Amino acid sequence: MILEIYYKIVVLVLAVLFFGLRNRFISHFKYSKRMFVRLLFVFLILGLYFTSFTSFANMNIQDSVRIFDGGLLILFGFGIFYFSHRALGKNWTPIIDSNKSGTNASRVVRSGPYKYIRHPIYMATFVLLLGFWVFVSNWILGAIPFLSFSWIYLSNVKKEEGLLVKKFGKEYKNYMKGTWRLFPKLI
């Protein structure tokens, strides 16, 4: 029981770190209603985690697996998340809006994680959420964010790539041919 308190403290610290890191890269953007709703969703999940409301869905994963496997996935996800944002620099935008010009990108980024995959921020988020799922050891608290983000990914990725093809044309199409969408080519 006492160990569970430490898990909760770590999750809270990780959430603060995640949003602190994210804010570092988006501080020059106005917050949209969509971004606010996503942040509210995160607070809802964290609120559920800090109550016993979802305890019936506990997975009873061993502490060593939660700490090492979940923790390593979280650390790996954070690393990719940071280096992806850093590689994009000013080319990153929090939300691509099809009603506007689409993106503030001035060039196709091919450095850092973008050398291997087109959407490393999405990949990092999937890895983070998988690590979070293992770490919190709860079907509801793991599945809801993971499935919600999967839906966001599936509904956005083709639209984003379409806007980038529209903006950069053949250059982005050639980039697409040499990289995978979500995970790097292993061979």
Please describe the topology of this protein:
Elements lengths: L1 H25 L6 H17 L13 H26 L31 H17 L2 H30 L1 H9 L9
Helix pairs in contact: 1-3, 3-4, 4-5, 5-6
Verbal overview:
- The chain is mainly α and 187 residues long.
- It has one domain: Four Helix Bundle (Hemerythrin (Met), subunit A), CATH 1.20.120.1630.
- It contains 6 helices and no strands.
- Helix 1 (2-26) packs parallel to helix 3 (63-88), helix 3 runs antiparallel to helix 4 (120-136) and helix 5 crosses helix 6.
- It is elongated.
Brief description of this entry?
The chain has 187 residues and is mostly helical. Helix content is 66%, strand content 0%.
List keywords for this structure.
single chain, 187 residues, mainly alpha, 6 helices, 0% strand
